[in-house]
Hints:
Elements: E1 12-15, E2 20-23, E3 26-28, H1 32-43, E4 48-50, H2 51-59, H3 67-82, E5 92-95, E6 99-102, E7 107-109, H4 122-153, E8 159-162, E9 166-167, H5 172-189, E10 196-197, H6 200-203, H7 213-220, E11 224-233, E12 236-245
Parallel strand pairs: 1-7, 8-10, 8-11, 9-11
Antiparallel strand pairs: 1-2, 2-3, 4-6, 5-6, 11-12
Amino acid sequence: MASVEEPIPPEVELDLARYELRRSGRVERLEKLPMELLILLADRRGQLVSRAEIHERLWGKEVFVDADAAINTAVRKVRRALGDDPDMPRFLETVVGKGYRFVGPITIIPGAEAAAPSRPDGAVAGRSALAAFALVMLIAMLAVGLGRLGSRGGQAIESVAVLPFENVGGDPETEYLSDGISESLINRLSRLPHLKVIARASVFRYKGTHPDLLTVARELGVRAVVSGRVFPREDGLSVSVELMDARE
């Protein structure tokens, strides 16, 4: 009796009905905002999608501080799910200073509402706005805190590491915002003169590890370490932050 070969699944499938991404038949986990980004880019395959369009699609017209860092986070997660290399992209191409273009093969399985692009829900947009406000406050507080630590220790704070903020509760959308706050702080503090800020790639290896802050300071060779926690609440978002001087 001749054997019947099972059909080989497409390399990449975007199933809108089930709201999932599959690679070679295996489901790849993607949070809501990176998934919405992938749907937008795949739907416009071969076309340039600007960062402004991405911003409006993911957050509507809400003001979102340092949206560039948040978009970069979403793009990284999409690339990771696709197994794509940003230096030699097969799927997602960066157009420097403009946006992104989806260039790879993908099979899109339409859903019942595939023709109607989804909009950011109120909870995500509201939390994004709160995260933006929290970020402004954190930058101001850290600038003051770094100055006070320097004056108290007799020597200016010349180096700092911002650890990934902990997502208390594990909610996927809060995870996205907690990463975005951490990355935005790294970007903003990097603009301060005479302050060395450890790059994202070096600090995000501590994500989910609950490290000893003095050990982190020693391993990264910094004077100060910033850590924080993000708590989702029914009426919004709560953010706590700690600034530690390794010399005290």
